[in-house]
Structures are given as structure tokens and as C-alpha cells.
Amino acid sequence: MPALPNYFEDKSNKIKGCMVGPLNDTMTGPQNPSQAKCVIYDTFEKNTMSIDSCTNQKMLDSAVCFGNNCSKRLSKNHPLLPPLVAIQFTDNKSMPHTAYTRTSIERLYDKLFTHYNWRNDPYMINYISKSISIAEVAKAYYIDKTIEQKDVQI
Q1: How confident is the model over 85-115, as pLDDT tens digits?
Q2: pTM of the model
Q3: Would the N or C end of the chain have less CB density within 10 A of its end CB?
Q4: Tens digits of per-residue pLDDT, 37-54?
Q5: End-to-end CA distance of the chain
Q6: 76-82: Cβ within 8 A, 24+ apart
Q7: Which class for 11: exposed (0-12), middle (13-18), buried (19 or more C-beta within 10 A)?
Q8: pLDDT for 22
Q9: Residue 73 belongs to what H/E stretch?
Q10: 3-state secondary structure of 49
Q11: Is residue 35 within 8 Å of 20, Cβ to Cβ?
């Protein structure tokens, strides 16, 4: 992973992951415990749900910032749901906004609606395509000005 380029593995504690900075002398983790790192968990569920997983860190790293004063972070609002990638930005009128990446919202919906095929529901697809809470829609509306208010759900 480009943001965390160094791999480590601690077989005695069954922990592996990636980090920034040098490895410790035994090559089982970071030299400095405060170094940025992520964990590669042993199950899909843990990798999806854990805010410190490399899966979630990669999703955060690949999210594109836009607008002014942009920052991005992982936001975990419930212990039984996967974290969302939040993009915080200001528009050209200096108004602050927060939106979430489509990928992280889709993953949340997959978890919320396990017994319902929401991906085949026209209402849900339309909502994701037009919701101002979705980063891609917020960027098109607030920053790029490629869609109008009548084309979004606020």
C-alpha cells in the first residue's frame, strides 16, 4: 500500500500489517509504536469492520479530496457497521460540507440490508446516484457545477 509501504508480521502474536517508517529490530512491527500502521486481519468481516484495517486504510487513501480545505477520514458511527470514508470540504462560497464516498455507503448498505437486495431497488439506486451526501454527487453539485439542484436529493 503506497501510504503504508512497509510490511510487518509478528507470528507469535498472529499480527500482520503495513506501516510508515522503519521496522523494529525483530521486524515484527514498527520501531516506534506511534508510527502510522494498519492491520491485515484474518477474516473478511474483521477487515471490513475494523477502522484500523489495511482494507479500510486503502479505501481512505484512494478517496479523492476536492473543494477547498479538504480533508478525509474514516468515520465509524456504530460498532456493528463498517466505517465510512468522510470527505470534508468547503465550496467556493466558503460553506463547509461533509459527504461520504459511494463505495463506503454501498458497503454500509450491504451490511444494513443483508436480507434485502437493495442493489436491485430502483429507489435505492436513484438515491445513491442523486444524494448530496454522496461525495461524487456533492463534488458535481458544489464544486464542478455539472449538476443542478433539481438533479440532486438534499
Answers
A1: 999 999 999 999 999 999 999 999 999 998 8
A2: 0.87
A3: C
A4: 899 999 999 999 999 999
A5: 35
A6: 76/51, 80/49, 80/111, 81/49, 81/108, 81/111, 81/112, 82/48, 82/49, 82/56, 82/107, 82/108, 82/111
A7: exposed
A8: 85
A9: strand 68-75
A10: helix
A11: yes
Do residues 57 and 40 lie in contact, with contact meaning Cβ atoms separated by under 8 Å? no
The residues, any chain, with a CB within 8 Å of residue 113's CB and separated by 6 or more, are none
**What whole-number distance in Å separates Cα of residue 25 and Cα of residue 95?**
48
The mean pLDDT of the chain is: 92
With a cut of 60, say whether residue 34 has pLDDT above it.
Answer: yes
Asked if pLDDT for residue 1 goes beyond 60, the answer is no
Secondary-structure breakdown of the chain: helix, strand, coil percentages, each rounded to the nearest 5? 30, 25, 40
Cell triple for 144: 464542478
47 close to 40: Cβ distance less than 8 angstroms: yes
60 contact partners, CB below 8 Å, separation of at least 6: 72, 73, 74, 85
Q: What is the dihedral of CA 52, 75, 111, 13, to 10 degrees?
A: 10
